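Check this.
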Amino acid sequence: MAETESDPIIGQQFGNVVVKGILGRGGMGAVYLGYHPGLDMKVAVKLLPDLFVGRKELVERFLREARLSGKLQHPNIVRTLDVGYQNGVYYLVMEYVEGVDAQRLLQHEGRFSPMRAINIAGFVARALGEAHAQGVIHRDIKPANIMIGRDGKVKVTDFGLARSLQTTTALTLSNQVLGTPHYMAPEQIKSMDIDERVDIYALGITLWQFLTGTLPFDGPTPMAVLMAAINDPLPMPDEHFKKLPRELREAIVAMTAKDPRRRLPNIAAVLAVLKKARDALRAAGLDSTAPLKGGLSTSTDPGHGPDSAGFDSGADEAVRRALNSAVLTRPEDVGSFTKPLGQAELEARRREREAEGGIPSPQRPTGRPLPRGPKRPTDRGHH
């Protein structure tokens, strides 16, 4: 455990859970190891700090995390089991994942092999696909929020910044833009209307980091990082990318386009390009998932096995259809995105895709909200 010092919370009971130890502390509270005697299982317990209890917006954010994550039932998402208020403390009970987060693995191993990186990204994409289908945007995808269990399972955690797709603005908490600067999409930084494509951007940056061990945009201050993300082109250093298949490079470019109109429109499209990249890695003989540097290995490497990343077996029918769609990843959709689309070109492409029966290109005329696809379940009454 992260800490062994005396903690008055240890030994207390929240609902049916007895707190056994501390797992870690963060800006929005501490996470403890708990035990549920009725279910005879370990759980994680997240507590909202006392100093936040009097701040309505932070309490609402804490409860929103429980409500939004609570409706997500997926093998690649950490389950929410309970939420409550007891003795002046708000608590959230979650599934306990015995393992490490991807950020810690990166720090120890330096970077991941291309196949390992693709497989982990595939698991995360599946989790995001479920969240988006339920009308939830995560808004904080990054290695630190990707848990890798000792059994090799990959799970997305921390929906503390999640929002319902019904409420699309990125501006919250007294006009502060929330997110982790290195992974925030330009439209999120600019407080524009957002949709699921902010998660696709963050996953693309995360995949870039998996492959290089560094971050594409950096600076001495958070503001400098944000400005670099908006203004600087995505670097593709030869040291890391020259020997990789074109399909993998194009997948990253397609996921991280600064203009959301040029970004991959949905998770089905992400899974499609990741599958192409994975197949290209196999064809090039780059199919090892072993750590590049020894260390914090799990009993099964993440994504080990031909179908374990969800590209094939176990994929939802919608994903299968997307993987078989010839119009989903045409060259013009995954090439260079340095030139923004003009409105006339965008409208023409949208009509073309609709005529072909494909997925319409997202469009966002200036000053208007992003259009939505088919009506989906949303978080009603909790925004």
